[in-house]
Amino acid sequence: MITQQTIERVFEAARVEEVIGEFVQLKKAGSNFKGLSPFTDERTPSFMVSPVKQIWKDFSTGKGGNAISFLMEHEHFSYPEAIRWLAKKYNIEIEETEQSDEQKEQINERESMFLVSKFAKDYFYDVLMNTQKGRAIGLSYFKERGFREDTIEKFDLGYCKDEWDNFTKAALQKGFDIKYLKSTGLTIVKEGGEKVRTFDRFKGRVMFPIHSMSGRILGFGGRILTNDKKAAKYLNSPESDIYHKSKILYGIYQAKKEIAKQDNCYLVEGYTDVISFHQSGIENVVASSGTALTPEQIRLVHRLTNNITVLFDGDAAGIRASLRGIDLILEQGMNVKVITFPDGEDPDSFAKSHSDAELKRYLEENAQDFINFKVSLLLNDAKNDPVKKAGLIRDIVTSISKIPDGIQREVYVQECARIMDISEQVLFSELAQLIHKGAKTVERNTRKAEPKLQPIRKEQTKQKVDSLLLLEKEIIRILLLYGNEEVGFVNWVNAHDKHGRPILEKEEYLNTVSNELYLNLQEDEIEFTNDVFRVVYYEIIHQLNQDEKISIDKLIANEDPTIAMAVTNILMDEEKYKLSDWSRKDIIITEVEKILPKLVTDAILNLRRVLIERKLTAIVTEGQELANQPQENEEQLEKENHYNELKEEVINYLELKKLLYEKLSRVI
């Protein structure tokens, strides 16, 4: 178990904007940062990071928290794993106490799969670099491909010996369960008869570990080195709880910082393309690992940049097969360019046969817009055939229709009209038909997916605002933002003038905002009705009793996710107010310090008002029910007494309400 001292050092060192910046492209927005949500498919940034408060909020999903909670949400880390990740990032030595057997048993299956995968990565690398067979076969292959040892280490390349169960035996000896060797696909288990046989899935292959964006090992790709015609040249890990081929890009972990820095991502096909580019100084590159590009993979890049440059081999047939990927990129609202290499060349071979400077220059000079690329690729097929040419134009307009931005679509239509020597009006007409057709298809599919609902009356659609909930939230907000502030308050007390007539006298005093709220709530014996706000309030009071001050950092870092999430949501809502063009009608944010006493008193009095009104409603309802109940003669007197008690309660509460409105009018 990680010691509390280590956890505290991690919290002190971690900067939320630095941590999240490794996964999401953030841009300055006033004193905060904004970016695209890493949890939803959005085109307008709603993800906000506050360096001052050290918190984040995703307004598209409602999620929020600190650096730890982000790693737990985004990377599915456990709390200890998130601490370890941050400790490694900030070079903090982890101090631990011995884990109990019960704690060890709590490691879930998913985490066990990650542990097995990490062991496999380390084992294959060790075999490659430190065994005779590994160096003679695996390392010599990588050296022949031109990979330096520092590059091999950077990508954790390895080698699995050409023996039936060399790796499996080593893993079992280290205490790993065969269950997780099987579920990760590292070991093939065959059961037949009385004996269970195990085989290494990747035997005789050089290994390419596949990392998540945070660096965890999700799976492996293995290349065979023999001329076995029955075996696949490349073999990937099977789908599992931690590895989904369609949702990951090879090299994203090594490339993420440079992608964000260069604001562009090169997309290639294979592992060696990525590695060769890195070795040539082009690090903003990822690979789809030989699979058709998926929306999930594109969104992974979209978190870091809005620009993708697709690199194609010189094989024209392969290029045509990959054109659908361009439309998918356009659908995500991203900018796409295309680079093709000379016939017979691919990114790997081109990088090896040219200097670093020549490679960079080629990439800069040969990037072309997707329209020019499609025209240059397909126009030769059309030549002077009007039907084929019309098909090419329709194909290009179909791609343009995928673009969500209207202005961008118009610019591309104009460019297409210029290149193809055709009327813009014709293209716009075709574009409009395609967009309309697409919209109708979406609507039809949506209707099919929607459950049949009963008609909703107008009055049912009106949401009733819970005023008590809003006031409870306002009190928590005031405590979080201004609880430690000391300001001057006013109290009105009963007194008499010089003639002995009763008057209200103004009494001024100093108090902290937190004490003022606490004393008033205690005086009225008010309990929060909302479970979440009640938990947060008690935690704040506990802090005040311990330290006499409210610590936002401790609330955000609270191990109770209910507290951390509620506090984060309120604080980030405040940041959203600051960034908007309007301000709350009762508070001008920039003047909040001046009106703090009024803000506090207003919240207390309004809470009392709502509670009194609810109590009055409850009493009146009870009285009406009592009046309508038939009673026997002997119960009539008891009924009348109770009814009179209720009337007296109503009179008392009405008097309280009257006094309350007088106080509110003085505050206003």
Q: Mean of the pLDDT scores?
A: 81
Structural class, by secondary structure, is alpha+beta
Q: Going across the major beta sheet, what is the strand order? A: 1-2-3-4-5
Sheet with most strands: 5 strands, antiparallel
The fraction of residues assigned to DSSP E strands is 5-15%
Uncertain runs with pLDDT below 50, 5 residues or more?
449-464, 579-590
Give me the Rg, rounded: 34 Å
The N- and C-terminal alpha carbons lie at a distance of 55 Å
Q: Judging from the principal axes of the Cα atoms, what is the shape?
A: globular
DSSP summary, beta strand count: 18
The amount of helix comes to 40-55%
Total of DSSP H or I helical runs spanning 4+ residues = 29
Q: Could you outline the blueprint of secondary structure elements for this entry?
A:
Blueprint: H1 4-13, H2 16-20, E1 27-29, E2 32-35, E3 47-50, E4 55-58, E5 63-65, H3 67-74, H4 79-89, H5 101-105, H6 109-130, H7 132-144, H8 149-154, E6 158-160, H9 166-173, H10 178-183, E7 187-192, E8 195-200, E9 205-211, E10 217-224, E11 234-236, H11 252-262, E12 265-268, H12 271-279, E13 285-287, H13 295-302, E14 307-312, H14 316-321, H15 323-331, E15 335-340, H16 347-353, H17 356-366, E16 368-369, H18 370-382, H19 386-401, H20 406-420, H21 424-449, H22 458-461, H23 467-482, E17 486-496, E18 502-512, H24 513-523, H25 531-547, H26 552-556, H27 561-579, H28 596-628, H29 633-667
Parallel strand pairs: 12-13, 12-14, 14-15
Antiparallel strand pairs: 1-2, 2-3, 3-4, 4-5, 6-9, 7-8, 9-10, 10-11, 15-16, 17-18
Helix pairs in contact: 3-4, 6-7, 12-16, 18-19, 19-20, 19-21, 23-25, 23-28, 24-28, 25-27, 28-29
